[in-house]
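User: Fold this; tokens only.

Assistant: Input:
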Amino acid sequence: SEFIGLPSLRPPLPPAGLPTPALGGTALRPAMLSILSGCRCGGADDEEEVLVPSVDAREAVGLLRRIATQDRRLREEERRKQKELQKRTDEAKALKRAEEEARRHSQDMLQKVREMQKAFKEEQARFEQLRRERELLERTAEAKEEEGRKLLEERERWLRKTAVMAFLKEHGFSGVSCSKKVMMKTTFPLHVAAEAGNAKMVDMLIKEGADPDQRNSTGKTAAQVAQAAQARKGGLDDAHEDVLNVLAGLGRARLGGA
């Protein structure tokens, strides 16, 4: 049989770190690769060269294609792993950026909350200050109002006492509850004021201590004296009607005939 060499069909060696491509399930050894290339086997000391038969060219081409396919698959797998690694790296970076953004947002929100709390405390302090000032003004106004009321009452008492003293002096009485005799009849300041139709003096005498139930020597009260005086004028006297209204308003008058 004829032996030929195929140096042009020598398959390339696999990259470093990768397993030697398999042929029919068996790893290709250097000796097997030499068979594919049709090289001579033997050492330098061999007496004669031994030629090994070369494989069929189509089988060699198929083997090379399988090796190229496996290499392409390995490279694709490597690219896929690189893409997956890059994807995970990008996701990790995006997650880190999101965490940093969330942390900054949280810090901003915390700062805003602190500012709002500070503003609320300041507003609350201003409100409390305004409340204290309002209470002070109200107390001051109440005190002034009370002082004014007391001054008015004091002035009213002074005017009343002055008017009563002048009335008592004019009619010869020594006090609001003291009596005097006129033509063998005993009368009192309140009866004199009621008979005269002086409703204002009747009111002042009562406030100064005069008794509206006090009876004169004829057994009449001030209201009965006013009724008798009104009857003598035909019952159309408004002055005596005012006296009766003052006495009736006190709830002490006992109305009767003259």
